[in-house]
From TrEMBL:
List of catalytic residues: K198 (proton acceptor)
Protein name per its UniProtKB record: Glycerol-3-phosphate dehydrogenase [NAD(P)+]
Residues noted as binding sn-glycerol 3-phosphate in the record, renumbered to the chain: K113, G143, K198, D251, S261, R262, N263
Source lineage: Bacteria, Bacillati, Actinomycetota, Actinomycetes, Micrococcales
Disordered: annotated span: 324-350
Subcellular location: Cytoplasm
Membership in a protein family: Belongs to the NAD-dependent glycerol-3-phosphate dehydrogenase family.
Gene transcribed to yield this protein: gpsA
Annotated Basic and acidic residues bias: 338-347
Annotated organism of origin: Cryobacterium tagatosivorans
Length: 375
């Protein structure tokens, strides 16, 4: 049975885009007292008075108890948990503005899936650096979470990750409703990188979809993409099983196959022949994958990780590779047969390791997330 949320538990959500508003709805439906911060006063007024966010969630009725404001000080007043859902490239400046109003012992939760272009830093690392708070007070949420589907209360799940299991559990209690289930783990690196990297693979899927390639091509890229995601994340200290869970494989499937995915849509436009600048102009909301390609490849090179799919996406963005030539699973450095894993230590037992990760994940889901790692 789900632990009951203490009545009047005060939380704030910063960012009233589609995901921020959807998550505010989840928290309000879960019993929390939610204040949503919208940068534009007219949007805050529409949410509070009209129970709608017509710009980002057309047709969705928001909970009666959900309030919104354009004042940061009012949004953060007394908030025990602060959920941040702003574009990743503006996180740092938003945190600087919010810092004076964040309660001393508040938990700060990242809802974002990106890395900072200038530094390559993950969102939780920026939160720790700017706010100068203990990592035990920071959490990140990721998973197969297409906002509009969740706003329509279609059942789904996510994972809450924190260096402190107690913190992850406290956030998960609030972020659980009859249609949204939160699991927990302590692998923040894997959880965050999974959310970033799947965007890049979704760009590749969109590109080949726009070209007109079929399911075989997409299945090969998704599968090889999961290998790239896992190798990269493990090189930076993640647990491989996290990438076989909701924050990795689950998010990858949802983002690659859905027309609701901004990254998939951007890739499809590129595949149809639109230039990078034209795609950016057409996208009404931030497409995190476009900003993350360069920083991720720099981080990969720093650890000696090969990412041929992401590299070819970079070439398409730069205009140096025709979209129909994107076939990274076919273009290799050698004509010699290769193992499925790209790292040396995975060539011999990569299949067994990947199966083990899948099995652990399925076991955990079967038993309500009570397996090792809790994810």
């Amino acid at each position: 049975m789900k632990p009951k949320v203490q009545p009047g538990k005060r939380v704030a959500v910063l960012g009233a885009g589609s995901w921020g508003t959807t998550f505010a709805k989840i928290l309000a439906d879960g019993g929390a007292d939610v204040m949503l911060w919208a940068r534009r006063p007219e949007l805050a007024r529409e949410i509070s008075e009209g129970r709608r966010n017509s710009d980002y969630l057309p047709g969705i009725n928001l909970p009666v108890g959900l309030r919104a404001t354009s004042r940061l000080d009012l949004a953060l007043l007394g908030a025990e948990q602060v959920f941040v859902s702003v574009p990743s490239q503006s996180l740092r400046e938003n945190l600087v503005q919010a810092q004076p109003y964040i309660s001393e012992n508040a938990i700060v939760v990242s809802l974002m899936k990106g890395v900072e272009r200038s530094s390559g830093m993950r969102m939780s690392a920026i939160i720790e650096q700017v706010l100068q708070i203990d990592p035990a007070r920071i959490a990140a949420i990721s998973g197969p979470n297409l906002a509009l589907e969740i706003a329509k209360e279609q059942p789904t799940a996510a994972v809450v990750s924190s260096a402190s299991l107690e913190t992850a559990q406290a956030v998960a209690v609030l972020a659980t409703t009859r249609y949204f289930r939160s699991y927990v783990n302590t692998d923040v690196i894997g959880t965050e990188f999974g959310g970033v990297l799947k965007n890049l693979i979704a760009l590749a899927i969109g590109i080949v979809d726009g070209v007109g390639y079929g399911e075989n091509t997409k299945a090969a890229i998704i599968t090889r993409g999961l290998v790239e995601m896992t190798d990269f994340s493990v090189a930076y200290g993640a647990h491989p099983e996290t990438l076989a869970g909701l924050a990795g494989l689950g998010d990858l499937i949802a983002t690659c196959q859905s027309p609701l995915s901004r990254n998939n849509t951007a890739g499809r436009l590129l595949g149809q022949g639109y230039s990078y600048n034209d795609v950016v102009k057409q996208m009404q909301q931030t497409t995190e994958g476009l900003a993350s390609v360069g920083p991720i490849l720099e981080l990969a090179r720093a650890r000696g990780v090969e990412m041929p799919i992401v590299e070819q996406v970079r070439q398409v963005l730069a205009g140096t590779l025709k979209p129909r030539d994107l076939a990274p699973h076919l273009t290799t450095d050698s004509d010699e047969p290769q193992g499925e894993r790209t790292t040396d230590d995975g060539q011999a037992h990569g299949g067994a390791a990947l199966w083990g990760a899948f099995k652990r994940t399925f076991d955990q889901l079967r038993h309500g997330g009570r397996g090792p790692g809790g994810n």
